[in-house]
Structure formats: structure tokens, C-alpha cells
Design a protein that fits this description.
Blueprint: H1 3-12, H2 24-31, H3 42-51, H4 54-68, E1 72-75, E2 80-81, H5 85-91, H6 99-113, E3 115-122, E4 128-134, E5 139-143, E6 149-156, E7 159-164, E8 172-176, H7 189-192, H8 194-212, E9 219-223, H9 234-247, E10 264-268, H10 273-276, H11 278-293, H12 311-342, E11 347-350, H13 359-370, H14 377-383, H15 391-395, H16 397-404
Antiparallel strand pairs: 1-2, 1-11, 3-4, 3-8, 5-6, 6-7, 9-10
Helix pairs in contact: 4-6, 4-11, 4-12, 8-11
Length: about 400
């Protein structure tokens, strides 16, 4: 064998070139082979911003319920499907949830933690037969040597289950928001609103303490003895404190008259200007929470907001700027993930024609497109987001219906 044959043989046995991002090795150098942790504690944010704050709770529920209630349409480049295995799977994803419940949980996890995980339970042939939403606070991503995830660890208590996504089509669909400083996890609106949530919760605790103190500011008890001395003995001081705590503090003692013995005088203190502005501070914090999630404050009943002319306009902006972008992105990602199991190229998106908040806009668009005489029927359908149809069907739709029968 000559030297040239050796080199030809070496070239023939080379591994095919694999294309990958040049930044993958750099990312993997920092976190290869170990779990990448989220920079924020999702459990604490959920407890303080959702379970412990009425504005955060209503904001997340409003977005998740509105997005989950949107009707979805499934189509490819030629056909819009009324019946399809993917539609049936989405309509009845598992025995415990329907479509609305599944997507509400999915959107809720995405809003609270910035990440959402959807698990596909496959049948004998590998196609999904059930879909389940997994809790984001229990999931950890394990990056590989190239920076892409090779597994997901789901931990409950001391038990851990690993989803291997390195080979074949992954059984986990990871949805995440844009995060400028994290390569593996998404950024939650709850993190952006964390300071406003703390202010709002502190204001609520201050109001509760004020109610417990008979809903009035505190005062001062001034003692002046007969001999001109201004100090109490230890026994007198303890007796006075115990009497104040048991008979004059708390909501149940509100309005109870105070009996002061000789030498004691009560000097009430009025509200300071800062105390009077405290309620406005709480309303400002509530407005910041709503803005972080993209909800018009008017929809949450926050007073003093005049950004929108009326409630209907605010509701339309809420759907256009918050609900529809979120639902469109999530539906497209879920359809792309499910299509990988069957090899079909299907598109899942919200049906804008069935959204009551956008009825006026859709009526105006349909009227404008239908009156455009310079457009063909195929161009009009493309503008309205409808799939094309055959020329024979457009020319004689009744004949097409009889032929289908």
C-alpha cells in the first residue's frame, strides 16, 4: 500500500462534519456535566407574588385563563383539519385534565417561573397518547458538552427521575421566556415585579397592623409624678405595659375608653403626610406589577389609570399585546414538538375569528379584504390566514360537497 492510498483511506473513513454553534463549547465549559440552577428561587417568588399577593394572583390567572380559552386551529400548507390525532390529543391530553386545564397550567408555570415543561407519554408505536405539565420548580436541566440539554432531572423529595433527551425525539418540551443572562432557563415576569411585590406586601402588612391598633395612629403616655419626677418604677412600668396590651391594643379593643391614674396623660399623634401618601404608594406598586405582566391596570380595578379610553379598549389591547403573542408562541412550539413524533409539518395557532375581544377588528379586516377587487380569491385567503383551496372547489363548492359525500 502506497502513501497516497493511506491518505485516501483516511479521508474515506473520516466522520461527517457536524455543524453546531461556535459558542456551545464556551457555554459547556462553565456547566458541563452538572445541573444548571435557576438564578431565582421559584418557590419563594410563587409564595410571595402569587399565593400571597392579590394583584399578582389575579394578573397570572387573568393571562393564563384568557390564553387557555382561545380556540385553536390545526392546519398544514394545504388543509385546515377539523379532525386529527393531534387535535384529539390536545382536546383530551390526560384523564385528569382537558385542553383548557392543561394549557392554563402550562401558561401559569411559564408566567411564574419563566419556564414550562410538557411531558409526552408515548404508546407502543412511540406516538404520544397523553400530555402532562410538569412543575418548573422540580425540574433541572443538565447540559451536555456542546451546551445543549442532554437530560432533565425531575426531583420530588429525595427521589429523582431523569428524562434523557440526547437521543431521538425528546419526550420533554421545554418552553422558556427570553433571559439575557441565562443560557438554559427563562426569565419570569415575577422576577421583574419582585420589588413592586415586596412594596405591595409591606403596605398590606402596614395596613393590617394599623387595623390591629384600633385603626388609628399610636400616641404617647406622658407621666409626671407629684414630686416632679418623670420616671416610673419597674413595677409601675410593667403594670402599665400589661394593661395597655390586654385592654387597649388590638381590633377587639377599638374605641375602648382609657382610664389613666394620677400623673398619666395621653397625647395622640396624628397622621403624618408620609402616612397619608402610603395608600398611593401601594396603588403605584400594584400598577407596576400589572405592567410587568402586560395587563392594563384598568382590568384589575386599579384606580387612577386613564391610559385607555374605556374598558373595551383596554381589553382589546390586553389580547393584542399580551394574550395573543403568548398563545401563538406556545401553540407553535407545542405543534412543532408534537410534529416531530409523526414527521408531519403541522401548524397550531389561535383562531382569531372566534375571539370576542377582537370581533370589531376582524369584521373591519374581512370587509376591507373582501372589497379589494384587485386581489384574487387565493390572495384574499392568504391575507386572512386561510389555507388555499383547489380551483374546482372555488368555482363550484356545491359539487365539491357532493363529491365528498
Amino acid at each position: 500500500m502506497t502513501v497516497f492510498d493511506f491518505f485516501r483511506r483516511s479521508e474515506a473513513t473520516q466522520v461527517p462534519e457536524q455543524k453546531a454553534s461556535a459558542t456551545g463549547p464556551v457555554v459547556s465549559y462553565h456547566s458541563a456535566g452538572r445541573v444548571a440552577w435557576s438564578p431565582r428561587d421559584t418557590v419563594s417568588l410563587t409564595r410571595t407574588g402569587f399565593a400571597g399577593n392579590p394583584v399578582g394572583f389575579r394578573t397570572v390567572k387573568l393571562i393564563a385563563e384568557a390564553a387557555a380559552a382561545l380556540p385553536l386551529v390545526l392546519q398544514d400548507d394545504r388543509t385546515r383539519y377539523d379532525s386529527h390525532p393531534m387535535l384529539r390529543l390536545i382536546q383530551s391530553p390526560n384523564p385528569a385534565q382537558g385542553r383548557a386545564e392543561l394549557f392554563e397550567s402550562l401558561y401559569g408555570q411559564l408566567l411564574l417561573s419563566g419556564d414550562a415543561y410538557l411531558e409526552a407519554v408515548g404508546g407502543e408505536d412511540g406516538t404520544p397518547v397523553e400530555l402532562h405539565v410538569l412543575r418548573s420548580d422540580r425540574m433541572s436541566l443538565v447540559p451536555g458538552a456542546d451546551g445543549w440539554p442532554v437530560a432533565y432531572d425531575y426531583t420530588v423529595g429525595g427521589r429523582k427521575h431523569r428524562f434523557d433527551v440526547a437521543g431521538g425525539h425528546p419526550s420533554i418540551c421545554h418552553l422558556k421566556n427570553f433571559h439575557p443572562q441565562d443560557d438554559h432557563y427563562g426569565f419570569s415576569p415575577m422576577q421583574a415585579a419582585a420589588m413592586a411585590i415586596d412594596v405591595h406586601n409591606s403596605a398590606s402588612r402596614w395596613s393590617k397592623a394599623l387595623l390591629d391598633n384600633a385603626a388609628r395612629p399610636s400616641g404617647a403616655i406622658i407621666y409626671k409624678g407629684s414630686d416632679g419626677q418623670g420616671s416610673l418604677s419597674a413595677d409601675q412600668y410593667d403594670r402599665l405595659v400589661n394593661e395597655m396590651e390586654s385592654h387597649h391594643q388590638g381590633a377587639r379593643n377599638a374605641g375602648r375608653p382609657m382610664l389613666l391614674e394620677g400623673g398619666l396623660d395621653w397625647k395622640p399623634m396624628g397622621f403624618s403626610p408620609s402616612d397619608m401618601e402610603f395608600q398611593k404608594t401601594k396603588e403605584s406598586a400594584a400598577r407596576e406589577i400589572a405592567i410587568a405582566f402586560g395587563v392594563p391596570p384598568m382590568l384589575l380595578g386599579i384606580q387612577g389609570d386613564a391610559t385607555y379610553a374605556n374598558y373595551q379598549e383596554a381589553n382589546r389591547a390586553f389580547y393584542r399585546l399580551t394574550v395573543l403573542p403568548l398563545a401563538t408562541r406556545v401553540a407553535a412550539a407545542v405543534a412543532d414538538w408534537l410534529s416531530g413524533f409523526t414527521g408531519e409539518e403541522l401548524h397550531l395557532k389561535p383562531d382569531l375569528d372566534q375571539v370576542p375581544a377582537l370581533a370589531a377588528e376582524r369584521d373591519a379586516q374581512w370587509t376591507r379584504v373582501s372589497q379589494a377587487s384587485f386581489l384574487t380569491d387565493a390572495e384574499k385567503r392568504a391575507i386572512l390566514g386561510l389555507p388555499p383551496v383547489d380551483n374546482e372547489t372555488m368555482a363550484n363548492p356545491l359539487a365539491a360537497e357532493h363529491s365528498d359525500e
